[in-house]
């Protein structure tokens, strides 16, 4: 696969991984790709924790499941992020513009997707046990992944009082994308697991589980493993290969020119 194919084919993999282990050699290729990324002053302000141990992964899976259920149940997630979701009554994208397309959504959810942040929608969501269903699914997904990664930034470089926090975040994004492209070439599916970050007490428990020292902050969790040939899509799939057409987001010399 050449680089442009890898860019085209990379996607957020939110299905189950196969039982095929990720070998030491594969892991080293991924980690090398990660650390080849540019970083401010070449500071490489990160630590990447690789977790393969079943007991630890199951514990993480439990936390992820609880986080998913808690965040969905409380409704804060929808209040905070509902504005980034754009869709019509059928659950598909309506307008080009910023926003997240819900690419695959169960029929019963389509009814409420347009008023998801209202209290009526929240009672509907709870009534249908959606938080519990999503929590269980999430736990199972993580349990089945052969490798989970926890990524930390060094606080000295991730200093929120100056631009270094922006620089570190930017560098980390590049590092993750490097690894993601290498993974794509190796048929390894990767997924961000952001939901635990939405529940601070769970985020802290995970960070403590990994013995994160005070000089570092845990900033991302990912899971990875080999992908089946024809993966099933999860209950609610908001990843999408669709992108806005070029003219929607590029500018010719100045804002307002096109
Ligand atoms: C910072 C960040 C956090 C993300 N968090 C999640 C997540 O928690 N769960 C998930 O399934 N995808 C997550 N994604 C993946 C996006 O949903 C995905 O990249 C987007 O929908 C486009 O789909 P694609 O990557 O398959 O092209 C995250 C992506 C980024 C960059």
Description of the molecule:
With 258 residues, the protein is of the alpha+beta class. Helices cover 43% and strands 12% of the residues. It contains ten helices and four strands. The relative contact order is 0.23. It binds flavin mononucleotide (FMN). The site of flavin mononucleotide has 12 residues, from strand 3.
Oligomeric grouping of the chains: single chain
Largest sheet: 4 strands, antiparallel
Assign the structural class, choosing from mainly alpha, mainly beta, alpha/beta, alpha+beta, or little secondary structure.
alpha+beta
Rg over CA atoms: 19 Å
Which architecture of the domain at 3-53 and 145-228 would the CATH scheme give at its second level? 3-Layer(aba) Sandwich
H-E string:
HHEHHHHHEHEHEH
Count of DSSP E strands?
A: 4
CATH fold-level label of the domain at 3-53 and 145-228: NADH Oxidase
Ligands: flavin mononucleotide
């Amino acid at each position: 696969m050449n680089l442009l194919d890898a860019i085209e084919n990379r996607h957020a993999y939110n299905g189950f991984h196969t039982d095929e282990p990720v070998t030491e050699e594969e892991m080293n290729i991924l980690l090398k790709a990660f650390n080849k990324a540019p970083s401010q002053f070449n500071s490489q302000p990160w630590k990447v924790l690789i977790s393969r141990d079943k007991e630890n992964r199951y514990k993480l899976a439990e936390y992820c499941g609880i986080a998913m259920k808690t965040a969905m149940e409380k409704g804060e997630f929808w209040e905070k992020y509902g504005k980034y979701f754009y869709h019509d009554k059928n659950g598909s994208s309506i307008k080009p513009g910023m926003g997240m397309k819900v690419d695959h959504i169960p029929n019963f959810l389509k009814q409420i997707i347009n008023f998801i942040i209202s209290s009526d929608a929240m009672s509907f969501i709870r009534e249908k046990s959606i938080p519990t269903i999503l929590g269980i699914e999430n736990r199972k997904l993580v349990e089945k992944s052969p490798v989970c990664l926890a990524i930390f930034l060094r606080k000295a470089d991730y200093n929120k009082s100056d631009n270094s926090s922006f620089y570190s975040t930017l560098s980390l994004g590049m590092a993750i994308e490097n690894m993601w492209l290498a993974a794509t070439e190796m048929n390894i599916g990767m997924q961000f697991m952001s939901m635990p970050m939405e529940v601070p007490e769970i985020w802290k428990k995970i960070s403590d589980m990994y013995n994160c020292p005070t000089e570092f902050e845990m900033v991302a969790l990912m899971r990875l493993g080999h992908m089946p040939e024809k993966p099933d899509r999860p209950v609610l799939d908001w990843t999408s290969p669709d992108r806005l057409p070029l003219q929607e987001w590029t500018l010719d010399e100045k804002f307002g020119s096109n």
